[in-house]
């Protein structure tokens, strides 16, 4: 299924450009103008689904009876449809999103869905300027995923994941996980830099969750292990790429 806060006409424009004119056939359910995060947090009476005609919202629907293209809506009625479609009392949902505010937190907190955060701050060398990158036709079919060190520094903001806390006197500074880093490990099942890094993995590949041993880093793919107990950060980073 596809759930987007974009209106249907804009969704069609982008979907057609990216995936082709028949992009909607890739999905059983398309929901536009979903008004996330309210899609997850609001009651069905507050956010009913609407049918669409020529990209204009039509009648309100008391429930969802079948797959299709809808506007607005709520996660509760969607989940009831998923039960009907899968013939399972508690179907499992894996939800991909790139916004902690609109996607990951509400889907995890209100709907208890598995969440995959697409986090551009994890990107490594593939985000170099285009003129520095090797031409696409010269690259291999599949390049090993790259990921930045968790303590990689922005020239302006420092690390997105790790911060340094000053101590009084001559005591060494302490390294701590940032607020953003803690939210990622709390509300995401895993975090990846892009869809491309997992696209060619086998379907039975087993990812490690953030919830494994209450780890703050286990859910990053490619895997990144980081220890906070030393000021010598470079020597405490271990990468495991599979």
TrEMBL record:
<keyword id="KW-0378">Hydrolase</keyword>
<protein>
    <submittedName>
        <fullName>5'-nucleotidase domain-containing protein 1 isoform X3</fullName>
    </submittedName>
</protein>
<keyword id="KW-0460">Magnesium</keyword>
<keyword id="KW-0479">Metal-binding</keyword>
<dbReference type="InterPro" id="IPR036412">
    <property type="entry name" value="HAD-like_sf"/>
</dbReference>
<comment type="similarity">
    <text>Belongs to the 5'(3')-deoxyribonucleotidase family.</text>
</comment>
<dbReference type="Pfam" id="PF05761">
    <property type="entry name" value="5_nucleotid"/>
</dbReference>
<dbReference type="InterPro" id="IPR023214">
    <property type="entry name" value="HAD_sf"/>
</dbReference>
<dbReference type="InterPro" id="IPR008380">
    <property type="entry name" value="HAD-SF_hydro_IG_5-nucl"/>
</dbReference>
